[in-house]
Amino acid sequence: MQIFEERFALAEVFTIARGSRTHADVLRVTVTRDGITGQGECVPYARYGESMASVRAQIESVQEGIDRAGLQAALPAGAARNALDCALWDWEAKRAAQRVWECAGLAAPGPVVTAFTLSLDTPEKMEQAARQHAHRPLLKIKLGTPDDMPRLEAVRRGAPEARIIIDANEGWSAEVYADLAPHLLRLGVAMVEQPLPAGADDMLNEIDRPLPVCADESCHDRESLPGLKGKYDMINIKLDKTGGLTEALALREAARAEGYRMMVGCMVGTSLAMAPATLVAQGAEIVDLDGPLLLAEDRDPPLHYDESGAHPPLPELWG
Questions:
Q1: Phi and psi at residue 295, in whole multiples of 5°?
Q2: Catalytic pick from 140, 142, 231, 241?
Q3: 20 to 30 Å CA-CA from 19: which of 11, 34, 267, 297?
Q4: Which of the listed ranges 9-18, 92-101, 112-121 does the model predict with the highest average pLDDT?
C-alpha cells in the first residue's frame, strides 16, 4: 500500500461560507497485490476534523492485506476509509477482469447530468458567472451569509432558464431560513442543502419546508438516518463522508427504503474521486459531481463530461 499527497490547481478561487481555496489537496492510495494495482482518492475535510496528516495516519494504521469487509470495521466512515475502499474495489475489478459495477451486481452505468457550482462572491461577479454558465441545465449556488438574497437574485438574472439548487453550508438560522424560503420558491429554487447547522437542525421538524431540504453535513452513513426523520426530504451521499463505495451503496439502498430522495455530491477532487461516485449517482434525483470541472488540471485519463453529463470512468482511470 502506498499513499501519495497530491495538489491540483483550481481554475479559479473557490469560495464557500467557510473560506476560500486555490488548490485541491488530495490523498491517493494504491493497493498492489499479485502484481495488480488498484487506486482510490480522498479529500480530507477540516469540517469533520480531518487533515492530510490525520487521514494518512488512519490509512497507515490499517493492516496490510485487509479486505473490504475488514476495512469497514477497522476504520470509521470518512476520507481515509474512502480512499482505501475505492482502491480495493478497483483492485478486485482488475483481478476479476471485470468492471466494478459487474463485481457489485449493478447495471452498467450511463452518463449523469451534474450540477455546476458557482463560488460565493459579490452579486455582480456571481451574475457574471451565471451568464457564463447559463447553458448548463443545473447550477448550484454556495450561500450561507447574511447577504444572500442579492446574490440569488443576481444568479437568476444571469441564468433565467437554469434549474438552481442552493447549498447554505450550515450558514443560516431557522429564522433566516423561514424568512428566505418564500423568496427561494419565487426564484424557482429546486432544493436547499443543509440550511441549518448539523446538530442544531431540529427546527426543521417544526417549521414549514415549502421546498425540498437535503441533509449534507447531517448525513454521513446509515447510522445518520434515524436522526434525519421528519427534518429532511433528501440526503447528499458523498464518498468522503460514507467512507467509500461500499457504504455509499448500502446507504443509498437504506435511504430509498425510508423514502428519501437522493443527491450524490463530492468534495473538490479529481476525476479519480468522482469515478466511483458515478455508480452511486445512477438514478439520483440530483447529481453534483463537478469537482474536475473546477480544476485547472486533472488526472489522465480524466472523466469525460459533455452535454449528457459526467460519463462513467474508463478502466485506465478506475474500476
A1: -95, 150
A2: 142
A3: 297
A4: 92-101
